[in-house]
Structures are given as structure tokens and as C-alpha cells.
From TrEMBL:
<dbReference type="Pfam" id="PF14469">
    <property type="entry name" value="AKAP28"/>
</dbReference>
<dbReference type="InterPro" id="IPR025663">
    <property type="entry name" value="AKAP_28"/>
</dbReference>
<dbReference type="GO" id="GO:0034237">
    <property type="term" value="F:protein kinase A regulatory subunit binding"/>
</dbReference>
<dbReference type="InterPro" id="IPR053084">
    <property type="entry name" value="AKAP"/>
</dbReference>
<dbReference type="GO" id="GO:0005952">
    <property type="term" value="C:cAMP-dependent protein kinase complex"/>
</dbReference>
<protein>
    <submittedName>
        <fullName>AKA14 protein</fullName>
    </submittedName>
</protein>
Length: 133
């Protein structure tokens, strides 16, 4: 069977606020298939003026706390950019992309299925590095 990529209805640029951006990122994250043991928190990082618009940067920090280890040894971050174009009509939806910590690959929610394995790999690599040091 063919997998259908889950995405959300992004707000138009003229309705955007930093808070609404954070709410929409949370809504997108809720469509991702991650085990319930994963917890995350999200935050707004900064606003950036670009040549053709504005970019709003956010971060979602992920971990799997347990009873034995409520403070995880490592976390994995996903960085989001919401872009508002000066070139497109104000009623056009915002453009959203995300990257994973330690990766330059830019993902688009409408073109990409999020993989829990990506988070696991980041955490595994960090723990391996800490053990070597």
C-alpha cells in the first residue's frame, strides 16, 4: 500500500504570528508517527529578515525520559523555519521546512514522512560520542 504523507493546512501569511506559528508546528508534530514514550517541547528562537521575506525559526527538543532516568542522557532537536514571502500574495500560506540536528538536509512537510529513527540515531550518536570521551 502507498503511504500518504500527512500535512496540515498552513495559515495564510497575513494571519501569521509567532504564537500561531508555534501552534502550527505542534499541530504538524501531532501528525508524526512517533512512539508515545517520546516527549518534546517547542520554542520560538528568532526572527530573521531575508531578501524576499521574513523567516521565523523554531526548535522542538525530543527525548525519552524513563522512571529510572527521568533526565535523559541526550536529546534530539528538530529545527523549523516558517517563511513569509514578500513576493507572493499575503493570502498565500506560509512556507515551512525543517532540518534535524547535525544534518543539512532540508525537509518539507508536504513532501516528507517524518521518521522516528532519525531521532533515535541522533541520540544514539550523542551517547556513543559521550562514552568515547
Amino acid at each position: 500500500t502507498e503511504y500518504v504523507i500527512k500535512n496540515i493546512q498552513w495559515i495564510p501569511a497575513n494571519s501569521f504570528t509567532v504564537e500561531k506559528g508555534l501552534q502550527q508546528i505542534e499541530e504538524l508534530i501531532s501528525t508524526w508517527e512517533v512512539h508515545e514514550s517520546w516527549l518534546h517541547w517547542s520554542q520560538f528562537l528568532r526572527e530573521e529578515e531575508a531578501e524576499h521575506g521574513k523567516r521565523y525559526h523554531y526548535r522542538a527538543c525530543w527525548s525519552i525520559p524513563t522512571r529510572r532516568k527521568p533526565i535523559p542522557r541526550a536529546t534530539a532537536s528538530v529545527y523549523f523555519v516558517i517563511e513569509i514571502s514578500k513576493m507572493k500574495p499575503a493570502t498565500s500560506p506560509v512556507e515551512v521546512s525543517f532540518t534535524l540536528e547535525s544534518s543539512r538536509l532540508i525537509h518539507r512537510p508536504e513532501q516528507c514522512r517524518f521518521r522516528e529513527k532519525w531521532l533515535k540515531d541522533i541520540i544514539k550518536n550523542k551517547i556513543t560520542l559521550m562514552e568515547r570521551l
